């Protein structure tokens, strides 16, 4: 058992235990102990089943998202406001467009984060996500142009270390 | 302070409700399946996050606030996956999009 794998299992057990503590709310010695035992048992089982890896539990990104998530929230609010204005506009100015482009991330976690971020911002949806190409459906032509080689692409690449 | 928090939380909850209704209106107004999904994501993301944040302010620094944060995190990760699956399935089944077909692979 090497050191990195042990650290992953430990981090996973800690996350599970934190989750237990948040959901439980009853802090008697028995329940605290039972939660700890359950968290350790699940982490050991997950390691034995080899479902525990950097992708499944990307703890190394925990600090990087602290700066990325607030930025993403700002983008979500911005495009949410744009879509709201389109919905309330009597002329309903939509120009639905598909766009295919190449994302710059190299890791699966980075690609998934980029694809999810695109879908989370109203007005753009990732329809197909592969290593060499994303297919995005956008509500307007401008939104479609905005996802190709975007600031989001650069930020996610910096986040996962592809840049 | 608590009156200020109350006011902020009510503004957020009312705004969240408003965005949810706007998303619903958009779903009715939009011309085809794909554009309707875009309208739904306003309800999905902006509406639900504003309401949850308003509720967190009501809960204060308690366990309930952390549970609400876990709910927000769950929506944050599952909602885009569900939307993606919905649209991909529709495209795969041949629901015709307005404004031209998807470009084929280069």
Descriptive overview:
- Chain A has 163 residues and is mainly alpha-helical.
- Chain A has two domains: 3-57, no CATH class; 61-160, no CATH class.
- Chain A is built from six helices and three strands.
- Chain A has a three-stranded antiparallel β-sheet with strand order 1-3-2.
- In chain A, strand 2 (124-129) and strand 3 (134-138) form a beta hairpin.
- In chain A, helix 4 (108-120) runs antiparallel to helix 6 (151-160).
- Chain B has one domain (2-92).
- In chain B, helix 1 (2-29) packs antiparallel against helix 2 and helix 2 (33-59) runs antiparallel to helix 3 (63-92).
- Chain B has 106 residues and is mostly helical.
- Chain B is elongated.
- The longest helix of chain B is centred in the C-terminal third of the chain and has 30 residues, at 63-92.
- Chain B is 80% helix and 0% strand.
- The interface between A and B is large, with 39 and 42 residues.
Radius of gyration of chain B, in angstroms, nearest whole number: 18 Å
C-alpha geometry of chain A: elongated
End-to-end CA span of chain A? 31 Å
Q: Taking Cα atoms only, what radius of gyration of chain A do you get, to the nearest Å?
A: 20 Å
Question: How much of the sequence of chain A is in beta strands?
Answer: 5-15%
Structural class of chain A: mainly alpha
Into which percent range does the helicity of residues of chain B fall?
Answer: over 70%
Task: Please provide the count of β strands of chain B.
Answer: 0
**Overall domain count of chain B:** 1
